[in-house]
Recover the amino acids of this structure.
């Protein structure tokens, strides 16, 4: 089995990974890279995402009173950065929602850019879903490339 790692982003701080120098992510910044694994004569490429959190998303996440919920939603974002999007659904105009089925039915809204950057727009629960979607779509229109 042959593994190759290609790092697509440079930071000033580095760490060792598989004998190569790799960028060390800053707090709140996720590093995008691709892993190519050759196994059984098949080539598998796993794309990881860079996540950018808008201020509105951070405000919403910080406003949650339950610390366990904040941790679970943050863990979901960590899975996304590794390329595991989980249960997602489009809601319109390029905006999609990450659905979590615990508590009141948490939703996190995002747009994907260039197949590798995810911009987190906001969140909410099932009871405020239509208002949250409208806010996320409006916010997505203000994003410049």
């Amino acid at each position: 089995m042959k593994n190759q790692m290609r790092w697509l982003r440079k930071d000033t701080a580095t760490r060792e990974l598989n004998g190569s120098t790799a960028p060390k992510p800053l707090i709140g910044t996720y590093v995008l890279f691709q892993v190519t694994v050759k196994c059984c004569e098949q080539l598998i490429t796993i794309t990881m995402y860079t996540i950018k959190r808008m201020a509105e998303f951070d405000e919403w996440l910080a406003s949650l009173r339950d610390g366990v919920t904040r941790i679970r939603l943050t863990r979901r974002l960590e899975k996304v950065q590794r390329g595991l999007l989980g249960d997602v659904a489009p809601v319109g105009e390029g905006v999609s929602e990450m659905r979590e089925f615990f508590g009141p039915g948490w939703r996190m809204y995002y747009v994907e850019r260039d197949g590798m950057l995810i911009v987190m727009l906001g969140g909410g629960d099932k009871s405020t879903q239509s208002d949250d979607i409208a806010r996320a779509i409006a916010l997505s229109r203000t994003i410049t490339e």
The CA atoms of residues 93 and 138 lie 10 Å apart. The first strand starts at residue 2 and ends at 7. Residues 1-32 have pLDDT under 50 and may be disordered.
